[in-house]
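Technical appendix A lists one of the benchmark inputs used to test multi-chain prediction within the project. The record comprises two sequence entries:
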Amino acid sequence: MNFTVVNRDIQIGNIRVVGVASSSVFLIGDTQTISLSSIFDTPPESLIIGPLVPLAPQ
Amino acid sequence: MINRQSNVESAYVNSVGISSVVQVGDSLLIKPKVNALAVQREEERFYGFEGDLSMYQAFQEEIPSPIIYETVTTNFFHENPRINVHSVNITALSSSAVFHIGSTKDIIAEARVKHIRQLQNLDNGNNTDT
């Protein structure tokens, strides 16, 4: 497969970002590869009602 | 590919959090990784010896990478080899986030967050636990 990109003028004024989080990228420039992965686990079992016992003690 | 030049007049970043990167200038590889156990408790309590991450599957699971079946031939023409930005204002970067002014080759970021909420058991209106 052939992929052709023509980059013409880019003139940006003001950029306002509130948050960049959990394996995210804000890039002003060029790159070859970006690989971002994020695991976010909040199952129903993660709500523990009971005595405040230590979690996974080491 | 020949990289373009990034011109940013002014940049402001309020806070950079866990395993995040702010890079000004070119780079080759950025590889941030974070494992977080986000615990919210009804009572403020920190033991300091918690967090054996091998106990949770979210930190063990292997993340599959995409399989590339086809070779791609790329052509880039930079009619204007500059990226001009007047100003950037970022409130916060967190959990393997990257803010990059300039060009790079590879960015490989990983974030694993396990959320747990611990509430106290209320038995007949009395706290059974302390």
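Strands of chain B lie at 5-16, 21-24, 29-30, 33-41, 73-78, 82-94, 98-101, 106-119, 122-123, 126-127. Chain B touches chain A through 81 residues (CB under 8 Å). Comparable benchmark entries are summarised in Table A2.
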